[in-house]
Amino acid sequence: MIGFVADLWALIRSEWVKVRSTKAWWILMIIGAVMAGLLSLPLILVATAVDPETGEPLAEMDFTDPAALDVLWPAIGSATVVALILGILSFTGEYRHETITDTFLTEPRRSLVIAAKAIVNALLGVLLALVTATVVVGVALLLVPTPHAPFDWTQIAGTTSGAALAYALFAIIGVALGGLITNQIAAVVLALLWIFVGESVISAFLPDWGPWLPGGAAAAILGADGGWSEALAPGPATALLLAYAAVLAALAGLTTLRRDIT
Description:
The chain is mainly alpha-helical and 262 residues long. The chain has helices spanning 2-20, 24-48, 66-70, 80-96, 100-106, 110-143, 153-180, 184-205, 214-221, 234-258. Helix 2 (24-48) runs antiparallel to helix 4 (80-96), helix 4 packs antiparallel against helix 8 (184-205) and helix 7 (153-180) runs parallel beside helix 10.
């Protein structure tokens, strides 16, 4: 057992070195930050806009009401697609750059390699949540008019924790998808199509399925209902997203164990 833990720790350190040796991770962090900022920005700008002729507010949003500020914080969890792509690139990048053979020759236990990649990318997901939270809160501090209600830091911390959990699980799902679909472009395109098209189409025609899809589960973890009247509670939603990650990781492990890499 001690030897297993030591080997896993060595693989985690090696995987972290691989991540740091590329620009992809911090570029994706920037993309996630921009996504979160752009989502929160219109809410503030619309709420603070005034009619140039009358000087009256165009939208009735009273920022002296704490509930008005609470609509901003879900933007912290808007970058699940970035977490997913982080995981995908960690695996498909090795196939693309033909380093996967050396990786599996160094550590023949391929399931251990998958576990190390999952752990490192889950931690990157947590880091992504901290980045998006910092951006959203920073935008609010800069643009929300004074006077405003005190920020509910408990609410912000809870939303950030939910985002960290959702991002970590999406990153693990990304690792599993990268193991299943080794072509980087194909894996990323399919992931984007699923998130931006697939789930929307399924939810439109089968609305009862919406809360049970990965995106619906992520929304529930963040405390949003995704537009469904019967969304899952955060606990079951977490279990559901964890089940998605576990099943896909198991499938990736089975296919990777049998795949010829020479």
